[in-house]
Amino acid sequence: MGYTGLGTSIALAKRGHTVTCVDTNPEKVTLLSKGRSPLFEPGFSGEIAALSRRHRLIASIDTPAPVRDADIIFLSVGTPSQPDGSLDTTQLGAACLSVGEGLRGRRRQLVVVKSTVVPGTTESVVIPALESKSSLHAGDFGVCVNPEFLREGHALEDSLRPSHIVIGERDRASGNALLRIYAGFACPKVRTSVRIAEAVKYATNAFLATKVTFANELANICTRLGLDVDEVLRGMSLDPRINPRHLVPGVGFGGSCFPKDLRALVSLSRGVGYEPFLLTTTLSVNERQHMEAVRLLENELRPLSGKRVAILGLAFKGGTDDVRESKALAVASELLLRGAHVVGYDPKAAANFTKAFRGVEIAATVEDALRGSDACIIQAAWPEFSRLGPKQFALMQTPIVIDGRRTWTPRRVPKGIRYRRIG
Ligand SMILES: NC(=O)c1ccc[n+]([C@@H]2O[C@H](COP(=O)([O-])OP(=O)(O)OC[C@H]3O[C@@H](n4cnc5c(N)ncnc54)[C@H](O)[C@@H]3O)[C@@H](O)[C@H]2O)c1
Fold first, then answer.
1. What is the mean pLDDT of the chain?
2. How many other CB atoms sit within 10 Å of the CB of residue 141?
3. Which residues contact 310 (CB under 8 A, 6 or more apart)?
4. Which residue, 13, 111, 169, 308, is most buried by CB atoms nearer than 10 A?
5. Domains plus CATH for the chain?
6. Are 57 and 13 in contact (CB under 8 A)?
7. What does each C-alpha distance from 16 to 9, 97, 114, 278 come to in angstroms?
């Protein structure tokens, strides 16, 4: 029951289905059984409380029993990277074994893979594990791949009103059953094969990540040429072939999807004998992009040793408590390496950040973070940062603001600060 599993659960429960939320993490199950959200995502708390009261959402740490009673089983477990970048299917394999137990002796239940998996995984990992524990054959149970496209920070709206739905069906009956579940969702739906559906997710994330990196690279070049990259991007985006979304320079992409999905695609590609230069370059440009913020800071404050620097926003982006591969981790490491004292603030992600990283003082409020700081770096686009003004920045020792997320348009930059941004 992560961001994806909860989004799907809420969306289906709100449409009148009874959803059992299964997780092996006892803390998450306890919170869910009390009608509370185990993670921060706008709107989740209220929906989970309301749906739990109406017994539409039920929590369980046991897998086989709820599977036995279910018509459809969605697999939304994590699929992180292995150390070599390839897909780690440990959680998925374990979940499939437990689901397989529940399938035993039953017929025509549908298993839907929502986790992001590289093409071939459903055939090589999911189906064999389900078959081995259920003593059934695929076909006795249905199988679909239904990749998830939600954005953290917008998981509720994206789950309730998805932009599109991709159904990879192992057979027509499986696809029909999943399509019935999504009948009330008014958006384009595409039916395709299991492997194509798996690939669509990687193609999407690889393209979006490459767009972000393109904007970053362009910003880095424009900076050195003395050009305003926003004006270049604005002019460029007038071309009807170019959609401006994700063409926003900053400290680079993080999170639990783009980096690990790109690594998995690179690994898969190499495994079939093709070196994907574009994707590896997208990753390597992104890995050093946060250094642009550090460079801007050093230009203002060199040396950083002994300086107090505030990082505003510890999550990988605004609107979430998720710190997985957050650029705040990379920025904090660099600043500490240079001897700075780092103080961090985030409206929701401070607890997760502290679990993932030590050595950063955590401030309870944005004012506490700014007070006495020699500079601050805005790392995640939380709305509250765009409301900061001269009064708050006056708390700083020197009001140097390095903006990693385009918090303000040039005309709205607060008065009285020394403002620098990437690009
Ligand atoms: N987070 C996103 O924005 C997003 C968007 C699209 C796709 N995805 C994909 O969806 C999948 C899930 O991502 P997430 O961010 O929601 O993950 P997450 O890490 O937030 O949640 C995964 C959950 O699965 C649970 N789990 C692990 N093993 C289990 C098992 N055997 N049985 C039951 N529960 C088990 C974990 O305890 C955890 O609560 C991944 O493949 C990810 O790539 C995520």
1. 97
2. 23
3. 342, 343, 344, 345, 363, 369, 370, 373, 375, 376, 377, 396
4. 111
5. 3-192 (3.40.50.720), 258-421 (3.40.50.720)
6. yes
7. 11, 28, 20, 45
Per-residue burial over 236-261, b if 16 or more Cβ lie within 10 Å, else e, is eeeeeeeeeeebbbbbbbbbbbbbbb
Respond yes or no: is residue 144 known to be catalytic.
Answer: no
pLDDT in tens, 83-102: 999 999 999 999 999 999 99
Distance 76 CA to ligand 1 centre (A): 5
Strand partners, 112: 74, 144
**Single-letter amino acid, residue 366:** V
Residues 6 or more apart whose Cβ sits within 8 Å of residue 344? 310, 311, 314, 328, 332, 350, 353, 360, 361, 362, 363, 369
Instruction: Kindly list the distances between the CA atom of residue 235 and the CA atoms of 207, 214, 220, 238, 264, in Å, as whole numbers in the listed order.
Output: 21, 15, 17, 6, 34
Pick the closest to residue 190 from 181, 200, 205, 204 (CA basis): 200
How far is it, in rounded angstroms, from Cα 35 to Cα 115? 24
In tens, the pLDDT along 95-124 reads: 999 999 999 988 889 999 999 999 999 999
Q: What beta strand segments (E) does 196-339 contain?
A: 308-312
Cα separation of 41 and 63, whole Å? 25
Q: 68, exposed or middle or buried, with CB in 10 Å at 0-12, 13-18, 19+?
A: middle
Radius of gyration, CA atoms only, the chain: 23
Measured at the alpha carbon of residue 119, what is the angle toward residues 62 and 117, in degrees to the nearest 5?
35
Phi, psi of 232 (to 5 degrees): -65, -45
Token output for 417? 């600060």
From 4, 29, 126, mutation site for ligand 1 pocket: most ligand atoms within 8 A of C-beta: 4
Pocket of ligand 1 (CB under 6 A): 1-5, 22-25, 28, 63, 76-79, 91, 94-95, 98, 115-116, 148, 150, 152, 256-257
pLDDT above 90 (res 228): yes
